Amino acid sequence: MQTSELSAAELAEIERKYDPETAFRSTGPQLAFAVSFLLVAMSVYHFYAAGFALIPELMHRGIHISFVLSLVFILFGWRKAPATDMAPPAWWRFQGVPYLDLLWSLLAVAAAMYLPLLPPEIVAQRVGNPSQLDIFMGTALLLLTLEAARRSIGPTLPIIGIVFILFAIFGPYAPGALKHGGTSWLGLINHLYMTNQGIYGIAIGVMAKYVFLFILFGVLATRIGLGQLFIDLAMVIAGRYAGGPAKVAIFSSAFMGTISGSSIANTVTTGALTIPAMKKVGYPSHFAAAVEATSSTGGQITPPILGAAAFIMVEYLEIPLRDVLAAALFPALLHYFGIFIMVHLEAKRLGLRGLSAAEMPKLGLVLKQHWLSVIPLIILVYMILSGRTPDYAAVYGIIACVVVGLLNPVNRLTLIDLWNALASGAKNTLAVGAAAAVVGIVVGVVTLTGVGFRLGYVVVQTATDMGAVIGSIWPFSFASVAQWSLFLSLVLIAMSCIIMGAGIPTTATYIILVAVAAPALAAQQVQPIVAHFFVFYYGVLADITPPVALAAYAAAGIAGSNPFQTGNTAFRLGIAKALVPFVFVYSPSLLLVADGFTWPAFFVTLAGAMMGIASLGVAFSGYLLTPLRRWERWWIAAVSMLFIAPGLKTMAVAVVLMAPVLYLQFARRRSETAVV
Fold first, then answer.
1. Where would a tag sit more exposed on the chain, N or C end, judged by fewer CB atoms within 10 A?
2. Predicted TM-score (pTM) of this structure
3. Last residue of a domain, one of 199, 224, 241
4. Cα–Cα distance between 263 and 123 in angstroms, integer?
5. Backbone angles phi, psi at 94, to 5 degrees
6. How far apart are the first and last CA of the chain?
7. Rounded to an integer, what distance in angstroms lies between the CA atom of residue 412 and that of residue 226?
């Protein structure tokens, strides 16, 4: 077992171990300064471009890609370094970095900037008829993008990219509905490089225009004390109640989710405090780690940041960011509600205490020290809700962070701090930027071949065939074939999201699978925003779903618990996240902005979802007022599905069926009290 307290270096090593996006290699002092300068320049450029310049779209995306790829080849090695120590001197290295990697870095800049630097009329002429140099540069950028993604996020996404490339070329040999006319290498490079349908497409555009700025905002906001304010407020709100540290983890992660879109980073940041505190009051190590991991994954679904997915939705669906944030609000609250219920019941079952007054911060002192740090977040949210563009809101949020940091005497932002924050913000975008470029390749192949609609057809047809078989069997015949087809389509898509999310970032999973899910669910009359959120939620769920539950494994590293046991417990705690997407598919009113929204439907759906999630939490915990018998747990689990199914009739039936168990619990509790 590890000690209850870990140093900053140990926490950083845990994050490095489980998050490949942070596994940077060390370099010599001169090269480190050059890299730091480039990172700061990257941040300054994006800030300037968003707030004060009118840069052509292709040029902006090209500059972003050149920064990302060049820095990835310097900061990420051919293989993940086992330690943070600089590689030993060698004739083929310069300050820890092979000369070949420096060459790839320069070639990446040349390939990324070649097309944007050409006159627009020349580019227009060559689309459909690229020159030999165009083909060379496009091929170089394609290969370097795949390699950069492999180094920074692992092999899974590049392999998917290669499979799609092969599919585009060898389409005539594909089976069944996937068969297509195919394309030549020239045609492939023309589409992926010369147009805005590939590497320079929506994915990298969103990263360059929106995501970079919001990541930078999160880094600056945390540096000026907003993260500490959230943790302290969470302790004040929930610390005194039964099992207080676990509830602190829930609230602090929910608050941190407003400025962070990374599950693993959130886990390590708040878990360093909450996991030892949970163990101290009596929670088992694996449960403490699972609570933190599950709570932290909620950061990716909590407004106003939502990771990159929110901005992808803005571009794909052509709706304001405020609508996306409104749609995300109550599903996120249901996620945290589900965790809270299970944590509370576990605390009651184990008889755990809350934090004492001496262990908790004073509200007055917390607000006095950190109240200024919340101003940037208020400005950001206000601008988004007032209808300003996300990049405009982020620019003013960043300015507010800098101003507050310079004025706040408690967390004073020095020029060195500002430099480091700008460098850190840019550094945190490199892996996701490389992933976005590969996603552009995948999406480009989808648009070139129409495979999204083909796969969507396969999904719907498979679900329909399965539904016909199941619907012919009593008692499953109560639902029509169409109803079974929709349900099974959702199940197949959810499983695909979880499987793909095990190896690639959430945003990449979301973008790739929505290309399949959107046509499939559209054929089932599911609204576009509902389809997008469904895929997004299940992509996030992969972070706490074994066998590759990276957030859970990072938390286990802090807690000193068994990683697989932690992952299983985290999935159980996050079961609400697995159920809520089905709820808003069948009742889109939960998303607030979906077509056909009505307040009665919303309140019925919300009430049913809360009762169903609470019931399921009781079943998993094995405790309500007293310990539950095995048959009672299974009964409650079955009845909880009726609560979740939207509708007053199903809720009424669920209440009637739940009554006997409630009666037995009250009777058992009275008898125990009488004995005492």
1. C
2. 0.87
3. 199
4. 40
5. -120, 110
6. 38
7. 13
Coil vs helix vs strand at 501: helix
Q: Are 198 and 441 in contact (CB under 8 A)?
A: yes
User: Could you please report the per-residue DSSP string of 232-263?
Assistant: HHHHHHHTTSTTHHHHHHHHHHHHHTTT---H
Tell me the residue range of the domain where 180 lies: 8-199
Pick the closest to residue 264 from 506, 18, 83 (CA basis).
Answer: 18
* Same domain membership, residue 161 and residue 31: yes
Residues 377 and 243 occupy one common structural domain: yes
Residue 508 belongs to a domain = no
Return the HEC string of 139-177.
Answer: HHHHHHHHHHHHHHHCCHHHHHHHHHHHHHHCHHHCCHH
Same domain, 261 and 376: yes
Domain match, 412 and 291 both: yes
Q: Are residues 410 and 384 in the same domain?
A: yes
Please list the residues that pair with 623 across neighbouring strands: 627
Report whether pLDDT(15) > 80. Answer: no
**Which of 409, 427, 445 is at the close of a domain?**
427
Render pLDDT for 532-576 as a digit per residue (tens, 0 to 9).
999 888 888 777 777 667 788 888 888 888 888 998 888 888 887
Task: List the one residue out of 498, 464, 497 whose CA is nearest residue 482.
Answer: 464
Tens digits of per-residue pLDDT, 406-456?
988 888 899 999 999 999 999 989 998 999 999 999 999 998 998 888 888
Place of tokens 């932290």: 296
Q: How far are the Cα atoms of 233, 239, 241, 270 from residue 360, in angstroms, in the given order?
A: 10, 7, 12, 16
Q: How many CB atoms lie within 10 A of CB 453?
A: 18
Overall number of domains in the chain: 3
With residues binned 3-state (H G I as helix, E B as strand, rest as coil), the percentages for the chain, rounded to 5, are: 75, 0, 25
8 Å CB contact between 657 and 639? yes
